[in-house]
Specification:
Elements: E1 4-8, H1 12-23, E2 27-31, H2 35-44, H3 48-51, E3 61-63, H4 66-70, E4 75-78, H5 84-93, E5 98-102, H6 115-124, E6 128-136, H7 140-144, E7 149-154, H8 158-168, E8 173-178, H9 181-203, H10 208-226, H11 240-250, H12 256-267, H13 270-277, H14 285-296, H15 302-312, H16 319-322, H17 324-327
Parallel strand pairs: 1-2, 1-4, 2-3, 4-5, 5-6, 7-8
Antiparallel strand pairs: 6-7
Length: 330
């Protein structure tokens, strides 16, 4: 059954999800605060700022008016970072209870799940019908080209996950359902770390043995970390959401973090690499949060310590090999 869906955001990821939903014959509206992007989507059926010349479903509409975007909304997809102003606008201008899908789930600064806070806010304002999070391997150009991928759809209630999976799933967008919301939050929060490390090792001209070994070390380090802050099992790192996302990120040479890793090894100077790429280092704040939380549990984790020293103390990137591998006795 066709639904009125509003998706908030305007980058490549948001646009590719909108395309999936429009391919499923839903009525899709993208809300963006960029009027030029909205006009291009409406009249040229593309988002060249993020997806170059790729054409998207011509039935997708876009608006830079939050009120108009929520007028008929039955399903709200949050596909970007959520700030208090955005959440308040949603509360103020929503017309009815909605299915809310968090397509950009993340951990809070203390490394705990953020989903409960989001659910509580929308429940308190009586606009939440169902809630689920989705995440998976999401190279946006491939989604628009209909290359097959798998996403996790997770909710506290399996029924809610099934409802959302039915909205998204089609012949190229496979959905696996679960109650493990935390896994999607972990996957999104740490994906950029994998991209950075993939770039560093590629810049160091490491072989496949080294790449695969460090991948395992990162997984083990996250697993060791997360069990201190959440009701957690290792299954949270062993599903479509996490493993496919981490693998995609590790080898995604188009991502900014991968390029940053390459530049760091090229210059042996992190600050110079950041300046050359005009990279926003706050996009890797997860590493600062990890360092803070490791201090609270008095448990230093070698991998994260060394990566932070490369990023913030300008340590040479070769230390990621020399010291991490020694610490893990590989």
């Amino acid at each position: 059954m066709s639904k009125n869906i509003t998706i908030i955001g305007s980058d490549d990821y948001t646009t590719s999800l909108a395309n999936v939903l429009a391919d499923n014959h839903h009525k899709v509206v993208i809300y963006t605060n960029d009027e030029e992007i909205a006009d291009q989507i409406n009249y040229e059926h593309k988002n060249s700022k993020f997806l170059n010349a790729l054409k998207i479903n011509q039935n997708i509409k876009a608006t830079d008016c939050i009120v108009a975007s929520l007028e008929n909304c039955e399903v709200l997809v949050l596909a970007s970072k959520k700030d208090q102003n955005l959440i308040q606008d949603i509360i103020n201008y929503s017309k009815r209870k909605m299915i809310i899908v968090d397509a950009y789930p993340y951990l809070k600064d203390d490394l705990t799940s953020s989903s409960k806070d989001i659910i509580d806010i929308f429940n308190a304002n009586d606009i939440l019908k169902d809630y689920a999070v989705i995440w998976g391997s999401n190279i946006s150009s491939e989604l628009v080209k209909k290359h097959p991928t798998s996403f996790m759809v997770c909710s506290n209630e399996i029924r809610s996950a099934e409802v959302v999976a039915n909205i998204f799933e089609n012949e190229y967008f496979n959905c696996s359902i679960s109650q493990n919301i935390l896994s999607c939050e972990v996957a999104n929060s740490f994906s950029k770390v994998f991209s950075l490390c993939g770039g560093i090792l590629t810049g160091l001209e490491c072989g496949k043995n080294t790449l695969s070994s460090l991948f395992t070390i990162i997984i083990q380090s996250i697993d060791e970390l997360m069990k201190n802050f959440n009701i957690y099992s290792s299954d949270s790192l062993l599903n479509f959401a996490t493993l496919s996302s981490f693998l995609k990120s590790y080898y995604d040479n188009e991502s900014l973090e991968f390029k940053l890793g390459l530049m760091i090894t090229k210059h042996n100077d992190t600050q110079k690499a950041i300046e050359e790429l005009n990279y926003n280092i706050q996009d890797l704040n997860i590493l600062i949060n990890v360092e803070k939380m490791c201090k609270t549990i008095k448990k230093p984790l070698t991998f994260f310590i060394l990566l932070n020293k490369i990023l913030y103390n300008n340590n040479r990137p070769i230390s990621l090999l020399n010291k991490v591998f020694t610490a893990f006795k590989l």
